[in-house]
Write a structure and sequence with these properties.
By secondary structure, the chain is α/β, with parallel strands linked by helices. The protein is about 20% helix and about 20% strand. Helix 7 crosses helix 8.
Amino acid sequence: MMRGITRTMVTAAVLLLTAGGAGGAQAAKAYNDPWLEGDLQQMRVPSALDILARTPQPVTVAVVDSGVRLDDPDLAPHLLRMPSAYTCSDEYGPGPSYAANPANGDFGCDFIGSGTDAGPTTVPDGSPSDPFGHGTGATAIIAAVPNNGVGGAGVAPNARVLPVRACYGGNPDCYGEPALAALTYAYAMGATIVNASWPPGNDYSSDFRAFIASHRSMLFVFAIGGTDQNDDPYTLCTNKATFPNVICVGLANADDSAGTVNADSSTDVSAPGNAGVPSITGTRAGFGYTSGATAHVSGAAAVLRGLAPTMSSSTIRTVLTTTSRQVAGYETANKAKGIVDLEAAVREVQRLQGLTTPAAGQGAPADTPDPFAGSVALLPTPTPAAALPAATPTPTPGSKPATPLTAGLTLSAPPKTIRAGSTLTLRLRLTAKNTGTVTATLKHGKSTLAKATKKRAKGSVKLALRLPRTARRGSAVLTVRLADRKPVMRTITVNRPR
Ligand SMILES: [Ca+2]
Ligand SMILES: [Ca+2]
């Protein structure tokens, strides 16, 4: 998905973007961002934003990747902070977890902690910062603030990015439990588009595929990763009956010729790989290719979803594919699909919605006012995180309200190992206003090794779990739960007694 691409830098301080491609509209839109390339014109983004029948609603796009540079001034205003305390790993089973909280300045979830390669998972945290730049590049393409004189311009002024770090390395490698946890988390946070700038190979687990099939309110945008899938087309891309909410993206070169990785029947649509770069890095070295193409499609989908929040994911996919710009010889040469044409897609969505498409330049503003102010805290400027007010999430239109999100308690780090025959003492604190029965269980498979309960718990709580000397040794799962909230879970190894 990545390739060393020499960036063709546009140095003009103000670049006048004119609509390009087939059926060129008259609209023109000036951007003053210094790092623009030709990608927006190639997809007819400026002219699309000039004919919107109404201002698009904000759309939460989860970028599941290597993370996001959280301090980039061109991205930060469009990044989502945690809407409420949320334990980053308890959705997908036992393991270390972290109670992300806006009061801590947390943006989202990091499911792999400091893991930088395909090594073991380390401790998650609430700061999905990006050591590689891959997820940052995707975020810039989707949601960089346009027309602010800094960095590039994203495709979707209405997109708000939920940064999710779940992929190792900078290529990136996204698999296993972190990948599934990331999708689950994205859903819980109200994301209706998942940008996955990585290929959905057939080795993903049945649970991973089942999650996608059963969450059709979400549109999953995947990258075609190479030519190897010609022999083994991705099921997630080809089985439209089961996965109507998946769109798989190939590469269109800047001159509209097909990217070499496009020789595949899995591809739904193509898009540019080049893009404006994150302002803070000033480079997109190692990013582009189908990763960039995927992000462009996520941005296009975010505009359409914001325009028509009740439109199904499969309809958005159909609109993007059927309105894509066909290039002579493109399809037959190597099975490449058409290039996304956002203006044509917007016109089609407005037709389907019974909306009258305004004349070029007469449309509604594409930039939504800060839609989450007072509900989900945003970082308005790249200043150090101050204490942010706790807030309840605003469900994104078309998504299920995300409840319950919080475990309602924080758990001081329990030991990683314990001996059979000893007592495990847990210290936890119920977060403000929470009170109720707290239960803690230590289980080995279905067998309960120890259990403790505290009724009418409030504030600081101590729980003691006594393990019998005969307790089965090995990896056990500690589950701590307040009432019927989602539990906090840890893995603890039970060793032989003294
Ligand atoms: Ca981190
Ligand atoms: Ca910008």
